[in-house]
Amino acid sequence: MNSIEVTNLSFSYTPEIDVLKGIHLKLDGETTAIVGQNGAGKSTFVKLLKGLLRPTEGEILLNGKNTKDYTVASLAKEIGLVFQNPNDQIFKNTVIGEVMFGPLNIGQDEQKAKEKSIEALEKVHLEKYLETNPYDLSLSERKLIAIASILSMDPNIVIFDEPTMGQDYAGKETLKEIIFELRNQGKLVLCILHDMDFAAEVFERTIVFNQGKVLIEGPSRDIFAQKEILEQAYLEQPYVAQIADELGLKGSYATDEDLLRALKEE
């Protein structure tokens, strides 16, 4: 099982302002949503996990090994990060060239890199665009290309930054399939989200960041039932939980099926 253990993690860009303060977390096995308002420290946290930033204090252990002992290049083989904005990630002039770049960069031969890349593009349903310029495709399609670029590298840990933004229903369903498949393969999946409905429905665990600290973390179903604590982080409950609350239903609600089941039992 892949794991990340974070101990007393703090980070600041300047001595006067702490972006993260004393974070203690263990991430292993469960698909995990990371939520919180802008400026809460979520993106900084995942950049630290990825090795793009180094802790001011504390340590991060990746499968028992301190990330300080890794180079950024060696971490790329272990942790894949899909950026929020695909335009920050995409730079090749063909889709297949873009998706093959990562596998080639970590040492795969060209044949294997192409096989892995086509397989990844099939997962996001964009295999017909191999020779297309990514910038001739829509923003939502470019986000899926960025995801395929990480999948083709086959890392043990995959981090998504706001993958649902700009996605329609079909795109979100594709994301669900990918997340479930990665989990079934034994990979650790983390995801920064503002979409509370998607977080509640898809992720087993949720971590709430607020002002550089972990406000609360635990099973998603339990976290999203705690309206008052979510309000401290300026977050809303998923819509099914809001409906249940308006109807006076007790308990926790993460999906439409939860709500329908409760209404049938009333």
Explain this structure to me?
Helices cover 39% and strands 22% of the residues. The protein is α/β, with parallel strands linked by helices and 266 residues long. A six-stranded mixed beta sheet has the order 6-7-8-3-9-10, with helices on both faces. It has a four-stranded antiparallel beta sheet with strand order 2-1-4-5, covered by helices on one side. Strand 9 and strand 10 form a beta hairpin. It is globular, with a radius of gyration of 19 Å. It starts with a strand and ends with a helix. Its main location: membrane. It is found in: Cell membrane. This is Energy-coupling factor transport system ATP-binding protein. It holds the Pfam family ABC_tran.
Question: What's the quick description here?
Answer:
Helices cover 39% and strands 22% of the residues. By secondary structure, it is of the alpha/beta class. The chain has a six-stranded mixed β-sheet with strand order 6-7-8-3-9-10, sandwiched between helices.
- SSE succession: EEEHEEHEHHHEHEHEEHHHH
CATH superfamily, please? P-loop containing nucleotide triphosphate hydrolases
Number of domains: 1
> Which regions have little confidence, pLDDT < 50, spanning 5+ residues?
none
Overall average pLDDT: 93
Determine and state the CATH class.
Alpha Beta
User: Can you tell me the overall shape?
Assistant: globular
The helix fraction, in percent, is 25-40%
Number of helices in the DSSP assignment: 11
β-strand number:
10
Strand order of the largest sheet: 6-7-8-3-9-10
Largest sheet: 6 strands, mixed
C-alpha-based Rg, rounded: 19 Å
CATH architecture: 3-Layer(aba) Sandwich
Through-space gap between termini: 41 Å
Strand content: 15-25%
Overall SS class = alpha/beta
Could you name the CATH topology?
A: Rossmann fold
Subcellular location: Cell membrane
Protein name: Energy-coupling factor transport system ATP-binding protein
GO molecular function: ATP binding; ATP hydrolysis activity; ATPase-coupled transmembrane transporter activity; cobalt ion transmembrane transporter activity
Pfam family, one: ABC_tran
